Amino acid sequence: MGRKKGVAEFEESPPDDFDPSNPYKDPVAMLEMREHIVREKWIDIEKAKILREKLKWCYRIEGVNHLQKCRHLVHQYLDATRPKAEAAASE
């Protein structure tokens, strides 16, 4: 009963023994890598949702000045919703 209720424990880094050139060599490492990729994608999705809520709030509060006052949130939201390769190419 030492484990906290509702807190998931997992490795935050990808598996060290995963070989991208031969992913089926170690099935356990392949599944761990797949879980890591899915977890990272879900984190990015949730970050984008939080930014979207902040942007909605900013639009409502600022009214006609939203183009100036919420610009930084728009850029953050667009960066969060773009695919990683496209975001790196635009920088």
Automatic annotation (TrEMBL):
It comes from Hevea brasiliensis (Para rubber tree). It is found in: Mitochondrion inner membrane. This is NADH dehydrogenase [ubiquinone] 1 beta subcomplex subunit 10-B. InterPro entries: NADH_UbQ_OxRdtase_su10, NDUFB10. Belongs to the complex I NDUFB10 subunit family. Residues 9-19 have a biased composition (Acidic residues). It is a peripheral membrane protein. Transmembrane segments: none annotated. Residues 1-24 are annotated as: Disordered. Signal peptide: none annotated. Keywords: Electron transport, Membrane, Mitochondrion, Mitochondrion inner membrane, Respiratory chain, Transport.
